Amino acid sequence: MTYTTQMDAARQGIVTKEMKAVAAYEQMEEQQLLQFVAKGQICIPCNKKHTSITPYGIGSMLRTKINVNLGISRDCKDMDMEMEKVKRAVDMGAESIMDLSSYGDTRVFRQRLTRECPAVIGTVPIYDAVVYYHKALKEITAQEWLDIVRMHAEDGVDFMTIHCGLNRHTAQRFKENKRLMNIVSRGGSIMFAWMEMTGQENPFYEYYDEVLDICRQYDVTMSLGDACRPGCLEDGTDIAQIEELVTLGELTRRAWEKDVQVMIEGPGHMPMNQIAANMEIQKTICKGAPFYVLGPIVTDIAPGYDHITSAIGGAIAAAAGASFLCYVTPAEHLRLPNVDDVKEGIIATKIAAHAADIAKGVKGAMDWDHKMDQARKKLDWEAMFELAIDPKKARRYREEAKPEKEDTCSMCGNFCAVKNTNRILDGEIVSIFDE
Ligand code: SF4
Fold this sequence. Notes:
Elements: H1 6-11, H2 17-26, H3 30-39, E1 65-70, H4 79-91, E2 96-99, H5 106-116, E3 120-123, H6 125-133, H7 142-154, E4 159-162, H8 168-176, H9 186-198, H10 203-206, H11 208-218, E5 221-224, H12 239-257, E6 262-266, H13 272-285, E7 291-293, H14 306-319, E8 324-326, H15 339-360, H16 367-377, H17 381-387, H18 391-400, H19 417-425
Parallel strand pairs: 1-2, 1-8, 2-3, 3-4, 4-5, 5-6, 6-7, 7-8
Helix pairs in contact: 6-7, 7-11, 8-12, 13-14, 14-15, 16-17, 17-18
C-alpha cells in the first residue's frame, strides 16, 4: 500500500507507523486517531526525510505540544552551542524546535537538525530566503521564494510557516483599517514589504498549488502563518486579523483537497476575554484544523516577564481548543534569549500546556499531579523533588531555608498543617508549642 502524506494514508485507511506511535503515546485507539488525521483535525508533522524523528500528533483532543524557537544568528553563531540548546530543550520536554536561523550557511544547521534531532522541526522559509539569496529584498523573484520552500522540504523539515494569507486583498484591508502596531510578524512584514515594492501578489498565495505539491511530495505540514497577528492588545481581533483568518480557512480547504496536513497560526497579543472566542472562530472557519498559538500575550506592560503573560494566555487558549503553544521567554521584546531565558520560557509554556490538558480532561494528564499530591501528603521531599517540573529549583529553594524539623518546611514549621493532620488522623497527640 502506498501513500503520500499521513492524511492520504488515513483517508485510505492505512495506519502508518507514525500513527501507531502517536496513538500509543496519547492512549488513543488507532482507528480513532486515523479518523481525526483523515479529517485534518490532527496533524502528524513528519517529513519523509526526517528519519531521526519521534513523531507527535497535534490536535485539540491530544496532549498540548510546545515549540521552542532556536537557530543561528549574527549574535549567536556557534553551531555546537545552538545544538546543545536544542538538546536541552528536547530534554526539558519541547516536542518541536523551530529553526529560525538568520545568519551564515543556514542549510548546514538545518540538515544537522533533521539528521540528529528527534523533535519535530519547523522553519520559516521567508527568513531563510533573505539570508540565502544575499540580495535586496525586492530583487527576489517569485520562483526564488518557491525554490526555498522546496529546499527546506528536501532538507527534511516537518512543518513550515508560510505567510500565504497576506495576499493583496488582505494587505489593502490592513492599510484601510489602521491598527496601532501595524505588522509584528517578521515573515509577514518581509512579505508585505516585498509586495509593496514589487506590486506583485504574494507568491505563496499566487502559486499556492505549487507550494502544496512540494508539501505533498515530502509530507511537510503547512503552518499557515498569521502575518496580521495582533501585536498589542488594542489590535486584538481586528479587521486585518480576521480578514487573514478567512483567507487561511480557504487555504486550509485547498490543502486538504491535496491531502496536505495543515496547522493555523494564531495570536499574538490579546485581552484574556477575547481568547476563547478567537479559538471558536478559528475552529469554525478552519474546520477544526489544529491551532498553533504564539502566546497569546494577555497584557503589554510586562517586558522581562512575558513568559508569564504568554503562559496565562496559552493556558486559556489551549483549554479552549488550541493544540500547540509556541514558547515565549522573559527576553521577549527585549533581546535574544540566553540559556536561562530558554529554560524559563520552556517551563512556563509546559505549565500552561499541562494545566490546559487537565482542564480539557486529556487522558492521563492529571496522573502527574496525583503523584505529587501523594508525595506532599506524606511529606516525602525526595519524591516531591523528583516529580517537580524543575527538580533543581525545587531542591535549591528548600536547601536555602532549611527547617528546624526535617519533615516540615520553613513556611510553617511546627504549625505544619499536613504533618499535624496526619498525626491526629493516626491517633497521635499534637501539641505544637513544646515540640
Ligand atoms: S510547613 Fe506548611 S507549607 Fe510546609 S509542608 Fe507543612 S503545611 Fe506545607
